[in-house]
Amino acid sequence: EALAPLGVHIVAGDLADTAAVRKAVEGQDIVYHVAAANTALSEEAFMAANLEGTRSVVEAAQAAGGPRFVLVSSMAAGGPSPRGKPLQGDEPPRPVTAYGRSKLAAEEVVKASTLPWIIIRPPMVYGPRDQEVLKVFRIARFGIAPVFGDGTQELTAIHGADLADALIAAGLSSATLRRTYCGTHPDVFTSTDFVRSVAVAMGRTVAVIKVPHTVGRGILAVTETVARLTRRATILTTDKANEFFQPAWTGDPAPLTRDTGWRAQRNLASGLADTWDWYRSA
Asked: What is the pLDDT of residues 112-135, one digit of tens each?
C-alpha cells in the first residue's frame, strides 16, 4: 500500500503463487528479489520461504528471458567474521543458523541458474519502517540496554535508504555480474557502541547490561518455547544465539564501491537519528 502512490505497479500474490511471480517478472530488465523470512518455527519453514521462494522467482525470471537478477541475501549466509577482519563476500561461507543456511541455499539456486546474477549480503539493516531495531529503542526508553556477551562484538550496519541505493548501483553496473558483495557502511562498532548510539539518538543515557552466554541461552530458550506454544515465530531463539555470541559480524563494502562507485551516505549517528525521527512520527 505504501508503494502504490509512488507509481509502483503492484502484483498481488506470494512466492508460492507461480502465476503472480511470472506476472511480476514479465518484461523486466532487472529483478530484485528482496522477499524472505527472517523468523520461522523450523529450519524446514525457513527453507520453504527462502530456498523454495527464491527458486520460484529464479524459474520465473528464466522463463521471462533471463533479466539481470539481484538477490538480497544476508551476512548470515556467509557467517561471522574474524575480529578485526571484515568479510568482502568471496570467503568460503560458514552460516551458523538455520536462517543463514536457508539464505545460503537461496544463493546457490541463483548461482546455478542461467541468469546474469548479483548477490548482496547486508548486515543489520535499520531505518524508517524497520521493526527489529525498534525493539532496542523501546528498551532504551527505560534507561537500560542489554547486550549479549561482554559487549565487544564487532558489527557493521546499513541504513535502509543506503542499501536501496547499493542495490540499484549493483543492478546497473557492468562490473558486478556473478559476484557476491557485502552491502554495508564501512564503520565498525561494538554492540555496546550500538546501544549507546541508540540512546544518544533519543537524547538519553542507558546502563549497559551484559548478558553472559549461559544466561542468554536460557532467556532465548524461554522466548523460543513461548513462541512455539503460541505458534508465533520469533527471532529470539536458541539457534539465533549462535549469531548473538559470535566475536564479529562485519563486512567490507570496498569491492562494491570499486565496481559501482556506490558509498553509504549515513553513518550510525545520522542513520539512527533519522530512524528515531521516523519512530516518533509513525
From this structure: 999 999 999 999 999 999 988 999
